[in-house]
Design goal:
By secondary structure, this protein is of the alpha/beta class. It is built from 13 helices and 15 strands.
């Protein structure tokens, strides 16, 4: 049986973790594209040689690809040469992890902006990628790992949404199942969960439990029977934060990698598999889904309407600093979150048009670099006065 071609774009840590899991299983013909071809080649060689430790002759090829405005035609040509069945986008102009490298006081202050104002860093490469995909391989399934809760929703408005995302809501499911199992005194595999929630919710809960203003829907079953009234959401998510605390940062990307593996391995499965994912079909936030047969379907619990699920996630989106996503894809940002960016970085934009994402990202990147350099040179205490309002998401 001929293997499907999987192209992973962005040769960073997430790409490496996904390949380290998938390559020994040898289910795909792997391709990795990065703007740094030498680094991508070495990454591919590392994984290929690691697989050979188990006598697995994984096929992995490196490609050069720069997701910029000026390289769309070249990228389309590269995609035509590869002819991928599945594309996983891991590319961002600045990873969410970057601010965790700041001194704690600076990080705590800047983290109050939440992830929404950083949208240009994730949207710009994804927008460039999807334009190349539309030209060269429109039938390829595209999975987005770069802030898919918002990026997929924005690109949907301009007819370029990836098929689904990974991470975020999916990262909360294992601990939620384990917490319910602990409370019920049963094995976690007997617990089935369906959770609707946006990025803000899925990152707040593992660190601090249920947010004061929580926008989510949780349904769960034990041994096939719905038991959603047995334990309160506050009790469950308190257990998630207390009893199943985990490593974050780079190490924590293992959860995102495994959520990607679940989606990727089952996209072309004969039988549909239940999973959780952000941004399916360009919807905002995260949902239960079914993957298989070359498609992704919503898997909402009985009695929850699609419109209600979207409204829940739009409310969570506002907590993340994105006020609205308009019909033409223009994004308006929350005043409170953007004021943090203005005070600390000197960066302020009330709204973002899709076509301006790259130029705005360039400005944001330069101002963040200047801020980080200033902090390193002068020390943090005398320059950062803002006190955190929320528990830091990535501490």
């Amino acid at each position: 049986m001929q293997r499907k071609k999987l192209l992973i774009i962005g040769g960073g840590n997430l790409c490496l973790q996904i390949l380290q899991t998938l390559a020994p299983r040898n289910q795909f013909e792997f391709h990795v594209a990065s703007r740094n071809l030498e680094q991508a080649t070495k990454l591919c060689n590392l994984v290929r040689l690691g697989a050979m430790q188990g006598d697995i002759p994984a096929r992995i090829q490196a490609w050069e690809m720069n997701l910029s405005e000026s390289d769309i035609e070249r990228n389309a040509h590269t995609l035509t040469r590869i002819r991928p069945d599945v594309i996983l986008n891991c590319a961002s102009l600045q990873s969410w992890r970057r601010i965790t490298e700041l001194p704690k006081a600076a990080f705590d202050a800047l983290d109050q902006a939440q992830l929404g104002p950083w949208l240009p860093m994730h949207l710009a490469p994804a927008y460039a990628l999807m334009r190349a995909v539309k030209q060269s391989c429109p039938k390829a399934l595209v999975v987005n790992a770069a802030f898919p809760d918002a990026v997929n929703a924005v690109l949907f408005k301009v007819g370029m949404a990836p098929d689904v995302g990974v991470g975020n809501v999916a990262n909360l499911i294992p601990a939620t199942r384990c917490a319910i199992a602990r409370l019920a005194g049963c094995d976690p595999l007997r617990v089935r969960v369906k959770l609707i929630g946006q990025h803000f919710f899925s990152h707040y809960v593992p660190r601090s439990g249920l947010p004061p203003k929580a926008h989510f829907n949780l349904t769960y079953w034990i041994d096939g029977r719905e038991r959603s009234e047995d334990f309160s959401a506050e009790t469950i998510f308190t257990s998630v934060a207390r009893d199943f605390a985990r490593l974050g940062g780079v190490d924590g990307q293992y959860l995102t990698a495994m959520s990607a593996v679940r989606v990727l391995e089952n996209l072309y499965a004969e039988n549909e598999v239940e999973a959780h994912a952000p941004g399916p079909h360009g919807l905002p936030g995260g949902y239960p889904v079914k993957v298989g047969g070359g498609r992704v379907l919503l898997g909402l619990p009985y009695g929850v309407r699609r419109e209600d699920a979207i409204q829940l996630n739009e409310a969570g989106q506002r907590q993340d600093g994105i006020e609205t996503i308009m019909a033409d894809g223009t994004v308006t940002f929350g005043r409170q979150q953007m004021s943090v960016m203005e005070e600390l970085l000197g960066f302020f934009t009330p709204e973002l048009k899709v076509q301006d994402a790259a130029s705005v990202a360039d400005e944001l990147g330069r101002k963040y670099q200047a801020f980080a350099a200033h902090i390193r040179q002068q020390g943090v205490s005398q320059h950062v006065a803002r006190q955190p309002v929320f528990t830091p998401r990535f501490a």
